[in-house]
From TrEMBL:
Topology in membrane: Multi-pass membrane protein
Domain Major facilitator superfamily (MFS) profile residues, every copy: 1-418
A Pfam match: MFS_3
Species for this entry: Microbacterium aerolatum
Location in or out of the cell: Cell inner membrane
GO MF term list: transmembrane transporter activity
InterPro entries the UniProt entry points to: MFS_dom, MFS_trans_sf, TM_effector
Assigned GO CC terms: plasma membrane
Keywords of this entry: Cell membrane, Membrane, Transmembrane, Transmembrane helix, Transport
TM regions (residue ranges): 20-43, 49-69, 81-102, 108-127, 147-169, 175-194, 228-247, 253-276, 296-315, 321-343, 364-385, 391-411
Protein name in UniProt: MFS transporter
Record bears the keyword Acyltransferase: no
Length: 427
């Protein structure tokens, strides 16, 4: 098979994987819809970019504990039941958001609390679903499954934020949260129809012993540890999402629609890179692939900062004007960052799923989820705080440069990671 298009064999190989993929895609679409809506809601209530960044930061510690404990649960109990339980909490928090908004009882603190619950439950759900996939597919299709996951991310992040921006601008917050409640129902379908999936090998009950066991494995797993470090660097210094509401209001123009467009641009890059991932999934040197993809990500974020700096010199003609040329340029830079991040994610996810034993995969996936979802929250704090102290263009400009330099240095110092071979996976 030499096609550059995405490999669809996982769908043909496993009906259970297909149902899980469909449910995760629709549920994730609703989740992104709510995430962007909460950011816009908080910005409307406070007018503060820092307050928007705190939506992400507030859930960081609960999300870390949920990811760790959720991974332990996934290594001790039926993963289908664990995933369904987490989905119930995610659904309930979203439903309460809708009820409070329709009742005009929402406050900034309710938005924070419910976003924290949603983030924690989503961490457990994601860790569990990631640990399930290697049980549904053979190892040679795991990279292709990761590319299909890029389609999921692309669709939910591209459509969700854009739809959120349009709905908030035209119908208000209540309808936006309500649509998410409906979409979340699909997630139950994907999990409910799975077979029983108890962990294989030695089972360690959740608790300190399980946590220590996972930590001891990670200490020996240099390749897994390095990919965590590289992704934290990329997400901490190269994640400017907390700036989007302010960019649409004070720099580029367009308000909520611009916020949605910028977020959707990242997803468009993710979607396209997955759509044409046929050759990407056949590249066996995953360590080098991760390095190059993350450095390309850093370069894209740096370019985004340059576009914003130009925007300081070319502001909109009035408060209601839109600087369309700069919005397009910013979207192109962010689309490139989404493509690069997705390619890195394909290699990182495949490395995790193929080299880690099933008996400990839940715990490692829990840590992986903390890195993947916690890194952007640190990035929100970095971007929001630094922009408050300096200017909107400065965090991505500096952060992109830091990503490029640090990744080059760390990979140069770890030749075992650089030479990682997917045909001979080793953690």
């Amino acid at each position: 098979m030499n096609s550059a298009l995405i490999d669809l064999r996982p769908f043909r190989a496993s009906a259970a994987f297909t149902r899980l993929w469909v449910g995760s895609t629709l549920g994730g679409l609703g989740g992104q819809l709510t995430l962007v809506t909460i950011m816009l809601h908080v910005f409307e209530l406070t007018g503060s970019t820092f307050a928007v960044s705190m939506v992400a930061v507030a859930g960081l510690v609960p999300m870390i504990f949920a990811g760790l404990y959720g991974g332990m649960l996934a290594d001790a109990f039926d993963r289908r039941i664990v995933g369904l339980t987490a989905a119930v909490f995610t659904f309930a928090s979203t439903l309460l958001l809708a009820v409070l908004t329709w009742s005009h009882l929402e406050t900034i603190w309710w938005l924070y609390v419910l976003s924290v619950i949603n983030a924690a439950a989503s961490s457990v759900s994601l860790a569990t679903r990631s640990a399930i996939i290697p049980r549904l597919l053979p190892r040679e299709l795991l990279a292709s499954a990761s590319a299909l996951n890029g389609i999921t991310i692309g669709v939910m992040v591209m459509v969700g934020p854009a739809l959120a921006g349009v709905l908030v601008a035209t119908t208000g917050y209540g309808w936006t949260y309500t649509i998410d409640v409906i979409l979340m129902l699909a997630m139950f379908m994907g999990l409910w129809t799975l077979p029983s999936l108890r962990p294989e090998g030695t089972i360690v009950r959740p608790g300190l012993e399980s946590l220590v066991d996972g930590w001891q494995f990670l200490k020996r797993a240099g390749n897994i540890r390095m990919q965590y470090i590289l992704d934290i660097i990329a997400m901490t210094f190269g994640q400017p999402v907390a700036l989007y509401p302010a960019l649409g209001t004070v720099l580029l123009g367009g308000g909520a629609v611009t916020t949605g467009a910028l977020t959707a641009a990242v997803a468009a890059g993710t979607f396209l890179s997955s759509l044409f991932s046929g050759r990407v999934v056949r590249y066996r040197w995953h360590g080098r692939g991760i390095q190059r993809a993350i450095q390309a990500y850093g370069a894209s974020i740096l370019a985004f900062g340059v576009v914003l700096l130009i925007g300081v010199w070319m502001p909109p003609a009035s408060e209601t004007a839109v600087n369309l040329s700069l919005i397009i340029a910013a979207c192109i830079a962010l689309a490139a960052s989404g493509a690069a991040d997705n390619i890195s994610s394909i290699y990182r996810s495949t490395m995790m799923q193929s080299s880690v034993p099933d008996s400990i995969r839940g715990r490692l996936q829990g840590i992986f989820v903390i890195v993947v979802t916690g890194g952007p929250r640190l990035g929100a704090l970095y971007a929001g705080t630094l922009a408050t102290l300096t200017a909107l263009w400065f965090p991505p400009l500096l952060g992109g440069f830091i990503v490029i330099v640090l990744v080059a240095l760390l990979v140069r110092l770890t030749p075992r990671f650089r030479d990682y071979d997917a045909e001979n996976p080793a953690p």
